[in-house]
Amino acid sequence: MNLNNLTIIEAIAGLKKKDFSCVELLQDHIEALEKHRDLNIFITETLDLAKSKALESDQKYSHNTNAILEGIPLAIKDAFCTNGIRTTQGSKILENFIPTYESTVTTKLFAQGAVMLGKSNMDEFAMGSATHYSSFGPTINPWKEDGSNEQFVPGGSSGGSASAVAARIAMGSTGTDTGGSVRQPASFCGIVGFKPSYGRCSRYGIIAFASSLDQAGFFGRSVGDVALLSDICMGHDEKDATSANIAKPDLAEAMKKNLKGVRVGVPKEYYSENLDPEIEKLWVDSLEMLKQEGAIVEEVSLPHTKYGISAYYVIAPAEASSNLARYDGVRYGLREYKQGMSLDEMYEVTRTAGFGSEVQRRIMIGTYVLSSGYYEDYFLKAQRVRRLMSEDFKKVFEKVDILLTPTAPTSAFSLDNESQMDPLSLYLNDLYTIPASMAGLPAISIPGRLNKKSMPLGVQIVGKRFDEESVFRVAKNMERCFNFNFSPKGF
Amino acid sequence: MKNAVAYWGNLVRDMSIDKDVVLKTAKLARLNIDANKISIYCEELSKVLDVIDTLKSADTTGVEPLVNVNEFEMLTREDIVTDGDCVDKIFKNAPKEKFGYFVVPKVVE
Questions:
Q1: Which of B17, B49, B50, B69 to mutate to test the interface with A (most CBs of A within 10 A)?
Q2: CA nearest to A460, candidates A282, A212, A207, A238
Q3: Distance to chain A for B28, nearest Cα, Å
């Protein structure tokens, strides 16, 4: 049996009918994992724990005490603190960090019976768009261009979690999304990736990057699977002061609705000469598809879009430089110290040895824009622009229910593609994901089709703040129309 | 697809970040910049600032900074102790600990 090709919803049905056991389901995933270790998906594997958990889950099915996700193998991004299990945030500075508490998101998943395969690889401190800035080596995308022997990036920063799901190693996974770190890798790996509204999922136990933007997110191979994971994890948590204390959306009900009368906005500023023509074609065709399903499509304007990358690359590094000040070699994490060093020297040597190049670059940018003389011109200016971007969305959402946009301007590129892999070109890859992050909006990337070289392409659906229901309503219908059922060759 | 140079044009029209700025910023950030990497940092940070400088053309007259997208008041809890008795947990990851304290290099002679 190839149980690892099932969706989560199919697997749960099979487990309930006793068609196969949790142990068998896990075994097929472990086989896939062992066969594809070259993809470098996990920083830490937890297979022994998974095996004992699967046995317990089988017991629960036999006693009819199974929870919603009972026995489902998942990958957990190494940004989520897991009690007693090493959590590195992709960084050498946390290489030996073992949390003594559990993040709220993983607490909720495990309470529903999820089985963790391991902690998946990521760009260090979630800063990156290709998962090559990890201190534990790059993760490789299971997809390859036709005829190419090169290795392709899975996107980032949640590249390990995205690759795991695309490679049929995990049925679903968690990610974090600060400027696109779930949606862009979902698009690069041909899977579904969702970031809820800021405030929907607790950030408790997620290692901080940029606190006003960080949000948990979820990957799966179907919209329904991602809705299930999201539904379990969303909701108020008093351990996170920014968690929204409002009623949870009813995604299951939303996904039953058709598209008649749904108003779809197309931001005219998103047409860009930087957009891959094949992705533009997918976007245009998707709009036609939505019209045929009864949706009303209209052009809208988000005039401050052009400032998105600039404002993001002030605000996110500024918040990061402040958040990452805690890594000083005193309370946890790496300490580099030689006899005779002063406290300040210990801080400097520790941080320089523990942080990689991109993290240091962003700390430097963040420190600079917050330093006296530049704070007003850069940091406050960027926050003012952030309000303008947020107001743009508010105005547009008075007229439309959702926005349809590309997820990323490109498909996955090769690790050897120097012109795409330079730091600033990677920043540019966040062009279409940053605006929703800046405004705290829910957004999903779903796979549409393969390009001429057989690489997956995705589109993004962005909703009004806290309107996850419209996002899933449209995503579910588009999934049916696209009927995307490709998998990478050999997986 | 175009890369950054095609999108923003040839960056670093003027080297806005010089060696002194790099060293001062690194000092504030508690990072050691290798002497032979300072010029690389000057160039890289200048490029990023060139990109960021596009913000200057945005008209933000009378616009309040958006600190957080949440429009609700942050909830506060009662000011009472809800945890404690977890000294072992707190020191679990400490690089160096003695007598219930974190140990750091001598600060006062």
A1: B69
A2: A282
A3: 7
pTM for the complete prediction? 0.97
Helix (H, G, I), strand (E, B) or coil at A357: helix
Residue pairs between chains A and B whose CB atoms are closer than 8 Å: 181
Q: Which of A71, A168, A79 is nearest to A119 (CA)?
A: A79
Classify residue B38: in a domain, yes or no. Answer: yes
Residue B1 has pLDDT above 60, yes or no: no
Q: How far apart are CA A10 and CA A93, in angstroms?
A: 40
Task: Give the integer Cα–Cα distance in Å for B45 and B15.
Answer: 9
Q: Do A428 and B104 touch (CB under 8 A)?
A: no
CA distance B59 to chain A (A): 8
Here the tokens at position B58 are 């945005």
pLDDT of residue A415: 96
Q: Where are the alpha helices (DSSP H) in A355-447?
A: 357-370, 381-396, 418-421, 423-428, 434-439
Contacts of B2 in chain A (CB under 8 A): 273-274
- What's the domain count of chain B? 1
Distance (Å, rounded) from C-alpha A110 to C-alpha A69? 8
The percent of residues above 70 in pLDDT, for chain A, comes to: 100
Domains belonging to chain A, first-starting first, are: 22-261+400-482 (3.90.1300.10), 306-383 (no CATH)
CB distance A388–B63 less than 8 Å? yes
> pLDDT tens for residues A318-349?
999 999 999 999 999 999 999 999 999 999 99
d(CA A90, CA A95): 8
Query: Within a domain: residue B72?
Result: no
Query: Is B7 a domain residue?
Result: yes
In terms of Cα–Cα distance, which of A398, A402, A422 is closest to A478?
A402
DSSP state of B90: H
The predicted structure's pLDDT at residue B17: 86
pLDDT of residue A283: 98
For residue B52, the chain A residues in CB contact (below 8 A) are 310, 313-314, 369, 378, 382
Which of A100, A313, A367 is nearest residue B29 as measured by Cβ atoms?
A367
Q: Phi then psi for A215, rounded to 5 degrees?
A: -150, 145
Known active-site residue A372: no
Would residue B87 count as lying in a domain? no
What are the tens digits of pLDDT across the range B66-97? 999 998 877 778 899 988 889 999 999 999 99
Q: Are A93 and A221 in contact (CB under 8 A)?
A: no
Separation between Cα atoms, residue B62 and residue A253, nearest integer Å = 42
* A73 strand-pairing partners: A115
Please indicate whether, in this complex, the C-beta atoms of B47 and A424 are within 8 angstroms of each other.
Answer: yes
- What region, left, alpha or beta, does residue A113 occupy, with left being phi > 0 and alpha being psi -120 to 50 degrees? left
Predicted pLDDT at B12: 59
Q: Kindly list the distances between the CA atom of residue A306 and the CA atoms of A5, A74, A186, A271, in Å, as whole numbers in the listed order.
A: 41, 37, 24, 11
List the domain range (segments joined by +) for residue B34. 3-56
Q: Which residue of A has its CA nearest to B75?
A: A241
Whether A163 is catalytic: no
Quick one: tokens of A456? 């997956």
Question: Measured between CA atoms, how close is A72 to chain B, in angstroms?
Answer: 30
Nearest-neighbour CA in chain A from B14: distance (Å): 17
Mutate: best of A94, A129, A203, A384, partner B, most B CBs <10 A:
A384
